[in-house]
Design the sequence.
């Protein structure tokens, strides 16, 4: 009975975490470049149930031998193993703002590969993002909305001296007669990157390989790839599963109560 109690409780905890991920996705449905998280559920290790007994051997001495008969497997619960970002390309929205940039994936040597803008966080560490909703700070540097410097190919902040600059499809920034290449990095398997706050990723990346095709679109933003309708449907499904496990948990609790209060009297 206690095994069923903990199995139902683990199902409730897993669906609660699933709900949290879905809620976060819906909250960021309008965040440019946001990549939706997908929860992966996994069962606890299976237990193999066997019936143990003995069998008489028709001999003079009447020996017995141990005998085992397989009954089946039993799972003891479920848990959220990890949250996996979906790196599918989001739709583009035209803004006509010179500081808004969108990365558009093309053909890569690795089917799951993707490119990212390079930025510098407040600790001075290099991070990567698909959110091209940039602006220009008081010193004329191209920065994110959080104030993180957007880096060029050499790893230095990009000076634009205002919003009057152009960016070519190849990622070349032209401002005040100066030209600098945007720091665009390539991840062969983006799932190996770690997701951080403010729509940033950390991990190992490399230079864009030869033969890879992509382009930068100025005056546009890549939208979030969250499907709000699908996320709402999944939230309702997760809530129903949570309620089902809750009813099972309540039934076990009532059974335990009867065992303690009623059967114990006898």
Sequence:
């Amino acid at each position: 009975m206690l095994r069923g109690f903990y199995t139902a409780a683990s199902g409730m905890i897993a669906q609660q975490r699933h709900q949290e991920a879905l809620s976060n996705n819906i909250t960021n449905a309008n965040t440019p470049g946001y990549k939706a998280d997908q929860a992966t559920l996994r069962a606890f290790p299976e237990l193999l149930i066997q019936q143990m007994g003995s069998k008489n051997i028709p001999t003079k001495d009447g020996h017995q031998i141990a005998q085992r008969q397989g009954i089946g497997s039993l799972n003891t619960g479920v848990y959220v193993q990890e949250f996996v970002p979906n790196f599918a390309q989001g739709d583009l929205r035209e803004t006509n703002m010179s500081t808004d940039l969108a990365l558009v994936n093309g053909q890569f040597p690795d089917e799951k590969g993707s490119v990212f803008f390079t930025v510098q966080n407040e600790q001075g560490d290099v991070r990567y993002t698909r959110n091209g909703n940039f602006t220009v700070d008081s010193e004329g540097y191209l920065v994110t909305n959080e104030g993180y410097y957007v880096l060029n190919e050499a790893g230095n902040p990009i000076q634009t001296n205002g919003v009057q600059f152009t960016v070519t499809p190849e990622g070349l920034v032209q401002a005040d007669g100066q030209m600098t290449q945007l720091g665009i990095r390539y991840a062969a398997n983006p799932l190996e990157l770690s997701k951080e706050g403010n729509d940033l990723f950390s991990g190992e990346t490399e230079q864009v390989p030869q033969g890879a095709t992509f382009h930068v679109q100025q005056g546009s933003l890549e939208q979030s790839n969250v499907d709000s309708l699908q996320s709402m449907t999944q939230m309702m499904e997760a809530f129903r599963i949570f309620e089902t496990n809750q009813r099972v948990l309540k039934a076990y609790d009532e059974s335990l109560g009867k065992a303690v209060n009623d059967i114990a009297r006898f």
